[in-house]
Amino acid sequence: MNDVIIIEKKSGSSKYTFLLFLGIILFIALYFPLMGQSLRYDFGRVFSYIFDKAGTACLYFGVIFLLLGVLSFFFKSPLRGFWLILLGIVMLSFASYFLYPSTIGAGSSGTGKPAPKGYH
C-alpha cells in the first residue's frame, strides 16, 4: 500500500492575535494620555463624513432608480418598473437615514453642508 501522510503546518494565527493585542495596548498607552479626550470627536468626524457621502450616493441612486422605474412601468415592463420603483424607495429611505437634516433640498443652507444646529 502506498499511503501518503500529509502534515499541515499550524497557522500563525496566534502570532497575529498577539500582535493585535500588543498594538491595542500600545495605542492605549501612547495615544490616550496625550489626546484621548478628542478621540471621540475624531471618530465622530470620520464616521459623519462617511455616512454623509453614503447618504448622498443613496439619494442620487434612489432618484435615478425611481425615475427609471416610472419610465419602465409605463413604457416597457410593468413588473420590472415596479421593482425599480421599490428599489428607488428603499434607496431614498436609506438616504433619509444617513443624511444630515437640511443637507440637500429646500431646507438646506445652499452650500451642500448641513445647516448649523445651534442651541435649542
**Mean pLDDT over the full residue set:** 77
Task: Give me the Rg, rounded.
Answer: 25 Å
Shape: flat
How many β-strand runs?
A: 0
> Alpha-carbon distance between the termini?
84 Å
- Please state roughly what percent of the residues sit in beta strands, choosing from under 5%, 5-15%, 15-25%, 25-35%, 35-45% or over 45%: under 5%
Task: Describe what is shown at a glance.
The chain is built from three helices and no strands. With 120 residues, the chain is an all-alpha fold. It has a domain at 42-120.
Structure characteristics:
120 residues, mainly alpha, 3 helices, 68% helix, 0% strand, flat
Protein architecture, described:
The chain has helices spanning 13-35, 39-75, 78-98. The protein has 120 residues and is mainly alpha-helical. It has a domain at 42-120. The protein is flat, with a radius of gyration of 25 Å. The model has no long low-confidence stretch (mean pLDDT 77).
List the helices and strands and how they pair.
Elements: H1 13-35, H2 39-75, H3 78-98
Helix pairs in contact: 2-3
